[in-house]
Amino acid sequence: MNHLIILVLAAVSIIPKPAVVVELNGNCKASRAQTPQVTLSPALKSEAYILDIDRKGVRICAGGEAGVFYARETLAQLGPGALPCVHIEDAPAFDYRGMMLDCSRHFWTVDEIKTVLDLLAMHKINTFHWHLTDDQGWRIEIKKYPELTRVGNYRPYTVSWPGWHPDGWIPDGVPVDGFYTQEQAREIIEYAAERHIAVIPEIEIPGHSTAALASYPWLGCRGEGYQVACKWLISKDVYCPGKESTFAFLQGVLDEIMDLFPSEYIHIGGDECKKEEWEKCPNCQKRIADEGLRDEKELQSYTIRRIERHVRSRGRKIIGWDEISEGGLSTTAVVMSRFGPPSVKRVIQNGNFVILCPGEHCYFDYYQNPDNAAEPRAHKGGNGNLNLEKAYKLNPRNNYTPAELAMVKGVECCLWTEYVPVMSHLEYMILPRLDAFSEAAWTGGDRDFDDFHARVQVMARRYDALGLNYARHYIGAKPDFEK
What we know:
The protein is α/β, with parallel strands linked by helices. The chain has 15 helices and 17 strands. The protein has two domains: about 70 residues, 2-Layer Sandwich (Chitobiase, domain 2), CATH 3.30.379.10; about 350 residues, TIM Barrel, CATH 3.20.20.
């Protein structure tokens, strides 16, 4: 199927835009409620489909059940009203099309997670990356270690700031707690599977682990004095890899995670691990000497490689952020890169596949408008205006050779939730930027923003009908949010 051949006329408005659309004369007499005629073809990839609508009815030919599902999602956008007669051929540019949701900084209920999954399905996104642990909260039940969800799931308040001002730290007095039982996790996994979405859990190792240390202090180098973080920061308190008991704990956690989640990959974090405590820890220094490691950076690499061996022993593979590549990995490990082409190219040269999530295009916790006061609180950092057009500009083909692109498994957008406490705010942060991302993930090549923006106007009516909040300024309407 040729993704360079694109013809979409005025009557058909679909996001993400199909590879080939040919509009025909007239409308289909069949109602949308009628069951389409479905056939499967081994000549098509599993997610590919051909959708034909004519005066005789609706026909779907797909490579697999996922392709049938996506054809139905396209069909759902061809309305309301009479179905136009049309021929559509479609298939994704990338096998991995994901979204990460941070459930540590703020907890999202099972029903709220299902709403997110419905949005992913609508946009033909096939992977839900579930960020379950961090410094500010542990969100998944581990039966072997019950303190993780008795102590580690709760923080009494959050210290935040109403802007980027050093003197602006303000405790909000609002407790945050909650976790997913294993039964609830299975419910979400099953709900996602029905929508052809794989769920990949993330358990942060060895950094971003303060909530675990507060639950079981012996996991840290000091062995005492840990609290669930109430402030947005990168904590110096991390797992102690000098102790065998730490690895026993991590392997026990991962065993339950792998028993629970059927995904091919387990995300193990690996990012932003501070090493000050390791420098002072006699157990860590002994580990460095015993293993012939040069320094604390190599101690982190030792930790990641050891965790990877355990995951592989269970028939699974790891995904981790950029930093896991620093000390060498097996070629089965996948690196999720937020840093851009130079970092990605180094990883590819090492023989590892990559998932791209460059912050400048894919981090939906950033503000969308240069006038920050006109929006709900968001992350500013060095990227204070990730608007719809910038999200739409994600195009891996501009930065990599064909050989390098062959090592790119796909792309992912991310919503970190430090400043996103309620569902209406979550919806505002991802919609319609999720539309832009989904088209970049599905089509992969050069695209026309003006054409896309016209189709967003149509999608907005669908969001209105579903009662979803979104950034209305993209369609020329006033914003609708609570400051």
